[in-house]
Amino acid sequence: MKIIYLTMTTILMTAVGVWAGDDAPTALSNKEAIDLVQTHANYLWTLVAACLVFFMQAGFALVEAGFTRAKNLINIMMKNLMDFSMGSIAYWAIGFGLMFGASASGWFGTTGFFLSDYAPDGDPWVLAFWMFQVVFAATAATIVSGAMAERTRFVGYLIYSVMISAFIYPVFGSWAWGGLFNGGGWLENLGFIDFAGSTVVHSTGGWAALAGALVLGPRLGKYAKDGSIRPILGHNIGFAALGVFILWLGWFGFNPGSTTTADKSIALIFVNTNLAAAAGAIAAMVVSWIKFGKPEVGMTLNGTLAGLVGITAGCANVAPGSAIVIGLVAGALVVFSVMAFDKIKVDDPVGAISVHGVCGAWGTLAAGLFNMGGTTGKIIGVQLLGIGADFLWVFPTAFIMFKLIDKTIGLRVTPEDEITGLDVTEHGGTAYPDFEVSSAYSQS
Amino acid sequence: MKIIYLTMTTILMTAVGVWAGDDAPTALSNKEAIDLVQTHANYLWTLVAACLVFFMQAGFALVEAGFTRAKNLINIMMKNLMDFSMGSIAYWAIGFGLMFGASASGWFGTTGFFLSDYAPDGDPWVLAFWMFQVVFAATAATIVSGAMAERTRFVGYLIYSVMISAFIYPVFGSWAWGGLFNGGGWLENLGFIDFAGSTVVHSTGGWAALAGALVLGPRLGKYAKDGSIRPILGHNIGFAALGVFILWLGWFGFNPGSTTTADKSIALIFVNTNLAAAAGAIAAMVVSWIKFGKPEVGMTLNGTLAGLVGITAGCANVAPGSAIVIGLVAGALVVFSVMAFDKIKVDDPVGAISVHGVCGAWGTLAAGLFNMGGTTGKIIGVQLLGIGADFLWVFPTAFIMFKLIDKTIGLRVTPEDEITGLDVTEHGGTAYPDFEVSSAYSQS
Amino acid sequence: MKIIYLTMTTILMTAVGVWAGDDAPTALSNKEAIDLVQTHANYLWTLVAACLVFFMQAGFALVEAGFTRAKNLINIMMKNLMDFSMGSIAYWAIGFGLMFGASASGWFGTTGFFLSDYAPDGDPWVLAFWMFQVVFAATAATIVSGAMAERTRFVGYLIYSVMISAFIYPVFGSWAWGGLFNGGGWLENLGFIDFAGSTVVHSTGGWAALAGALVLGPRLGKYAKDGSIRPILGHNIGFAALGVFILWLGWFGFNPGSTTTADKSIALIFVNTNLAAAAGAIAAMVVSWIKFGKPEVGMTLNGTLAGLVGITAGCANVAPGSAIVIGLVAGALVVFSVMAFDKIKVDDPVGAISVHGVCGAWGTLAAGLFNMGGTTGKIIGVQLLGIGADFLWVFPTAFIMFKLIDKTIGLRVTPEDEITGLDVTEHGGTAYPDFEVSSAYSQS
After folding, report:
1. Would you call A332 an interface residue with chain C, using a CB distance cutoff of 8 Å?
2. ipTM of the complex as predicted
3. CA distance A207 to A391
4. Which CATH architecture has domain B40-443?
5. C152 Cβ partners below 8 Å, 6+ apart?
6. B308 part of contact set with chain A, CB < 8 Å
7. Residue C227 in 3-state DSSP?
8. Nearest residue on chain B to C235, alpha-carbon basis
């Protein structure tokens, strides 16, 4: 009996590895190994999603370039490349610390600048998380580029892009998302729902775009003295449409990637994102068809983006049917919003204020209205508070910043340069030298 | 002894967690945790692959736009954006239920419409699976766009795109793939091999394209009365080539993603997909070089796609060397097929019928011929049956549908509109206003 | 007691599954299952990364097309498509075996040709690994295309592309990386640090590009007899900029994917890759601003690529702050290098020699200088040895090969063909038939 017992014990011990050799697995070591594989999957998903969000930079660049004139293409590509490049360095040095560092005041973080929270022998999760966050910061930054297209001094734009990535975006971000690493920002502690950033990213970009467009004023020739509005046509609709496809793709990183975890919850977010985009495209096409007599491509492309912005806040907490409704409203809303801003002579060449500012606000409200767990007056109130807080923080701050840039180094190019085109005057180049340009090219 | 025994037991119990605290892992809880991590990896792969397949929409749009005239670019982008958008909603409402719902008749499913199989507290796999399937449905739909380019009324195209996504594609899909969720379609129960859809997706799109091209008739000026064929040149080979690169990339989601499982089997599928595409490009280039005296870009680009379509059915069950042979045949076949359809005056501006219909059939046959486990007369017979069943279902149904659209709201634009270009007449826009257009632009 | 003991044993046995039913998990079976899930994650990451690197083919094509003239676009797209297609087949047949096969001599492998190391019932890892390696080989190959643009015979280019993929690249690759499957190449056994291929891929491509540009000579009209240098403008800066965004995206597969393992280490590589690219863009912009008076788009785009090439060797063993320094130096270096090669009349239309050759060398040196574990004279010596060995192997071999091609079938087109443009003369096509071309189009 004793012998049998010992033998048995040995077998058991070997099987569960309690005192077996170094490599023998135990339930506990297995549990740790399982957690590690899941962690690897989380890294993988977060960083693949960051790739998709990074690619949105190309999408925004193409949409802006496509919707504007050939004589400003180089300038637009330079702005879009440099806001990401300078933004990356600024977010590394300052922004990430303000947004996710430990916070004494509760209003912004004060640690983790220059990625100092990372030690080579420590946990590299902060690096994966930074990578995902920097492409978000850059999205907020690049939204503004479109609204300020075709008339902004390049050096002024560079200063702006550092400011939003280092300061304006991270401060609001810390209110709504900062708690991922520390005690929690005041908005998220109230229960503010903005899963992937309808407000945090898109409205922030949209309200900064509004400030920029107002400080700059409209492009020459856009609004005639008799009150009529002259459409300034985009020079390459192929670029614009490709840009929208790329943005739709990138949003599959933007929304589901915001889990920063590889789990089952990403499926719902994928489906909601896709359905809202489709509904936004359909709604904008139908509304433009009714209003203008024909299904208009610019509005339809912006309707797609409007649907995507709209579902960004609620992508994880609304049902697929609600996602369609949210997208339909966003797609219709963007058409009316674009027309309204044109009416009050706010010249936004690509519709960025409407797509990101207005539809970002709608999406944030909708995340409360269509909450699968039910909605209450308190939920709606907090959503409205978040929407308002973003506007009240971003718009005045950005407005003052643009005014300061304008009064010091100058924000707007000269009328002569604007007519010539910024490619020649700001960059000494021309984007399409092998083609004959039409009279529209050098029109003001 | 007793004491030792109890101590031992305690150690063992702790180690295997049989009656330890809540969090103590056991072999069983570990097994469940492992399965869950693998499930997470499956979600991740299926959804990342869906991203890649989604991006094929941009690829198809660019290929079609590049191979046609500048005056129809907006129309092409609108068609490609809207067939995905309307298709997404149609597949959510109807198509997915027909294809994968429980089936009483064995001919199509009758449950799961409006994603009603999904409950917020249930398993979200149906959402991940839907996301992967909707991008497949959209691929079938968008193939047709190219064959009908430059002369189709936009409203007629919208109706078509809903019909194929909601009805034509899902019904055949249920025969060949429906069993993923229910008892199995009749074709798959016979052993039909079409791993990622040479027939289910590509031939379905190709035969619908043939029906559309026949009902529409050729573009004005394509076939002269003296029997000569006038080439109508694509306006932007850069777009077309970029589109092919994007499609090649997307196919790495299309074929390997069809596992919907993150396991080792995807490696073979990747390699086969890549080698067949490369072989298709080489074969088409060589054949075009022999036949036309120069390596022709349009044929070479289509040869790449032909190789990809060809390997789609057999990507998981043929060896890499066979993939090269399949691709070589597809690449040569597509050149002869394009010329043959031109000869019988079926005007297919991008070669969609040849690439997807003809090479889809070849690929489906090849999946039987080169089966790694060996081939038999029965296997070949079932493959031919599947190829035939697809043609017999899709072509007549699509033909009747296009005829009905033609007789009611009208499928083809007026000759005047065709000459002016659909961008102006259907959408009130122009794709490249800053450039001087050549006389080719407004040619019929 | 006995009964209790047996009952207990039964419980334990069940729990650990020692002699329970087939499916009952044990610590050991769990450990194996965990390893398998991790293996699946490794496959997934390696193959998704291969997708990203594949997409770099589109990026290189767009950069080259954008920086050259419209009359050569078809030729450029054909070259970029075919170097990948022919390279894939060549690397399958020969290259992979030379690079990773078992080696008797220690200078190159001699097994694994035609993927013969893969058996259908064996481990498919060799397939996943091949897929990742073939896109690397293709990157080295396609780099050369840009330096030889606008004047190379298509058939000569095809022969070159087979030679580099089958022979030149794999042989050096086996010295630095071959040990992944066998005993180790001589360079890696010395401790050579080139994690993702600043030297192995980029300098190899760059030095072959130098050989090609020298054998070809400059484009007609590039260098006047009075010594002045005429800029030949790129025809589509939108394509070039999109190409750079795609390359940046693809590099997130190139560098982190080189782990071929889904683990935490990819986070640091992502961050370093991103920061170096951003720094490279900024540095090149600033230097071009200082030197030319305006922030120049071509230099800035190349500066981005320079930063990416620079961080490729050291992406896994330097700190983020060092990545910024490496990128800054690379971005500045590329401007001076491009100007220097122009001064000595080496006509490189896209700057490939400077971006990939020179900055590849810099990056390899920097991987030693900024090594997180500290640097020594020996480390620096080995890095310099690797840089030198690559030049001494690649440049003479490629030079002789290009000379042989030139003397036999001819490497350069006739002056008439060069003025007409290679699209017409080599491919019988025209890339933009709907647009009026400017006088620059048919300029020599």
Report:
1. no
2. 0.94
3. 6
4. Orthogonal Bundle (1.10)
5. C79, C212, C216, C411, C412, C413
6. no
7. coil
8. B238
- pLDDT category at A181 given cuts 50, 70, 90 is low
Cross-strand bridge partners of residue C437:
A435
Contact B40 A270 (CB under 8 A): no
The predicted pLDDT at position C227 comes to 82
CB C95 within 8 A of CB C137: yes
Query: Is the Cβ of B124 closer than 8 Å to some Cβ of chain A?
Result: yes
Residues paired with residue A435 on neighbouring β-strands, in sequence order: C437
Residue B396 to residues A384, B106, B168, C220: CA-CA distances in angstroms? 55, 21, 11, 58
DSSP3 helix / strand / coil % (chain A, rounded to 5): 70, 0, 30
* C-alpha to C-alpha distance for B287 and C149, rounded to whole angstroms: 25
A400-426 pLDDT, tens digit each: 999 999 999 999 999 999 999 999 999
Total residue count of chain B as it appears in this document: 444
Give first-to-last CA distance, chain B, whole Å.
101
DSSP state at residue A219: P
Place of tokens 């600048």: A113
Note whether C218 and C149 are within 8 A (CB).
no
Q: Which two tokens stand for residue A198?
A: 């309808």
Give the end-to-end CA distance of chain A in Å, rounded to a whole number: 101
Q: Pick from B378, B259, B383, B385: which is nearest to B316 by CA?
A: B259
User: Which residues on C lie below 8 Å from A134 (Cβ)?
Assistant: 274
Gyration radius (Cα) of chain A, Å: 25
Amino acid at C382: V
Distance between first and last Cα of chain C = 101
Say if residues A417 and A425 touch (Cβ distance below 8 Å): yes
Distance of alpha carbon B45 from alpha carbon B217, whole angstroms? 42
What span, in angstroms and rounded, lies between the C-alpha atoms of B418 and B407? 19
Q: Tokens at residue C151, please?
A: 């004047």
What is the per-residue burial (b if ≥16 Cβ within 10 Å, else e) of A114-124?
Answer: ebebbeeeeeb
pLDDT in the model for residue A444: 60
Best residue in B16, B31, B67, B85 for a mutation probing chain A (most A CBs within 10 Å) = B85
pLDDT band for B237, please (50, 70, 90 cuts): very high
CB atoms within 10 A of CB B171: 21
Ranges of residues in chain C with a pLDDT under 50 are 1-21
Where are the domains positioned within chain A? 40-443
Dihedral sign from CA coordinates of C77, C81, C86, C90: positive
Q: Find out whether C388 and C218 touch, Cβ atoms under 8 Å.
A: no
User: Which residue, among B172, B45, B5, B183, has the nearest Cα to B98 in the 3D structure?
Assistant: B172
A290 to chain C, any CB pair closer than 8 A? The answer is no
What token pair was written down for B178?
């429906």
Q: What is the mean pLDDT of residues B292-302?
A: 98
Burial readout B79-105 (b: 16 or more C-beta within 10 A, e: otherwise): bbbbbbbbbbbbbbbbbbbbbbbebee
C residues 144-203 lying closer than 8 A (beta carbon) to A: none
Query: Which structure tokens are listed for A305?
Result: 């983006």
CA distance C251 to C272: 11
Vertex A109: Cα angle to A107 and A110 (nearest 5): 125
Provide the whole-model pTM.
0.95
Per residue in A184-205, pLDDT (tens digit) is: 789 999 999 999 999 999 999 9
Give the closest-approach CA distance of B30 to chain C in angstroms: 7
Contact A439, C439 (CB under 8 A): no
Q: Evaluate whether A291 touches A342 at the Cβ level (below 8 Å).
A: no
Query: In this structure, are residues A388 and A364 in contact, taking their beta carbons and an 8 Å threshold?
Result: no
Among B51, B73, B432, the residue with its CB nearest the CB of A252 is: B51
